[in-house]
Design a protein that fits this description.
With 332 residues, this protein is an alpha+beta fold. The chain has two domains: 160 residues, no CATH class; 128 residues, no CATH class. It is 30% helix and 24% strand. It is built from eight helices and 15 strands. The strands form three sheets. Strands 1, 4, 6, 7, 8, 10, 11 and 12 form an eight-stranded mixed β-sheet that branches. A four-stranded antiparallel β-sheet has the order 3-2-5-9, with no helix packed on it. α4 runs antiparallel to α7. The longest helix has 25 residues. The radius of gyration is 24 Å and the shape is globular.
């Protein structure tokens, strides 16, 4: 049978023509919370105007979101003419779509659509049950083509539901966030100048904090970028080995601390050990035996992180190779 190659012509795509303003109201709480130009709203243990701390899951069963999309400037809407056919009206063939997603629970809201003419005028509202989500939710929004193009044109999207404008994600944090395979590893954005990552080890009690360059905050919140996934795949083994050193040689075991307990249980799982076996190594006196036992754990960790961590390395690399090959075929 003759092999056929379907060529997909590249088309123009814009980013961030629309800014998203978000207002969150919490059940049984008078105070409202707005994005105010930021890309993150943190509701977890948030200090309220009255001086108290918001214990979200203790006081509420749901939150309400009011999303108000607006053009980022006067010229943004005019740029849509470059994304449609010569004889087409952008307001007739394009639409604005938004939805909410939660990576941790795989929950997703319904998708809401606005006409282009409604941007800046009509808000979108969602009600989110807290039992359906964990850690944080993301507001995703796009401008998409809504119908087939009449005549195929170079540089123009031709098919319905093709995304022609990507907007930055906005996150709403509702819980303490677990990072890297579900363990409690604190990770925060910071101004690191020329450095991408930094690991701060303060003492023998506080779990070390991973810092990453703050200019990548919005990209690192996404799970659909191959380059971001690849970056974390490469850095995770080194970071986890540093955490293991801290756990074995520096930390003081505190099983009453849920974060420390979660960290220990995660390393026990990655190293194919029990919690008691990890504690046994921690309790050893400094010397050759402790170093040898650490080296055994380090080797086991290096193997375990490739299949038991946040990524299955072989499957992930295979997926990326197929994706790259597909892109090269489309370019040809």
């Amino acid at each position: 049978m003759e092999e056929k190659t379907i060529t997909v012509l590249p088309f123009s795509v814009y980013e961030d023509l629309v800014k998203i303003n978000v207002t969150v109201t919490v059940e049984n709480v008078e105070e409202t919370f707005s994005s105010d130009g930021s890309h993150r709203i943190n509701l977890y243990n948030r200090e309220l105007d009255n001086g108290s701390t918001l214990k979200l899951r203790e006081v509420a069963g749901k939150i309400n979101l009011k999303i108000e999309p607006q053009w980022i400037n006067l010229e943004a809407k005019e740029k849509l003419t470059y994304l449609v056919g010569k004889e087409e009206n952008p307001e007739a063939v394009l639409g604005f779509r938004t939805r909410l997603t939660c990576k941790r629970t795989l929950w997703s809201s319904r998708q809401e659509k606005l006409k282009i003419s409604e941007l800046g005028i009509k808000p979108v509202e969602f009600t989110v049950e807290l039992r359906d989500i964990a850690e944080q939710i993301f507001i995703e929004s796009f401008i998409t083509r809504e119908q087939d193009i009449g005549v195929i044109q170079d540089g123009k999207a031709a098919f319905p539901f093709t995304i022609v404008v990507y907007n930055e994600f906005i996150s709403i944090q509702v819980d303490d966030i677990q990072i890297i395979g579900g363990s409690h590893l604190p990770i925060k954005p910071k101004n690191l100048k020329e450095v991408l990552f930094e690991l701060a080890i303060d003492d023998d009690v506080t779990i070390p904090t991973i810092y990453y360059a703050e200019e990548f905050e919005q990209m690192f919140m996404r799970d659909d970028l191959f380059i971001v996934n690849n970056t974390f795949m490469m850095i995770i083994p080194a970071l986890l080995d540093h955490y293991l050193k801290w756990l074995i040689f520096t930390s003081r075991p505190d099983l009453d601390d849920k974060d420390y307990r979660a960290l220990m249980d995660k390393f026990a799982s990655l190293c194919n050990k029990t919690r008691d076996e990890i504690i046994e190594v921690i309790d050893l006196e400094p010397g050759k035996e402790k170093i040898d036992r650490f080296m055994e754990l380090s080797q086991a960790l290096f193997i375990g992180v490739q299949s038991k961590g946040g990524f299955h390395y072989k499957k992930e690399i295979d997926k990326h190779i197929h994706h790259e090959r597909k892109l090269k075929k489309e370019v040809k």
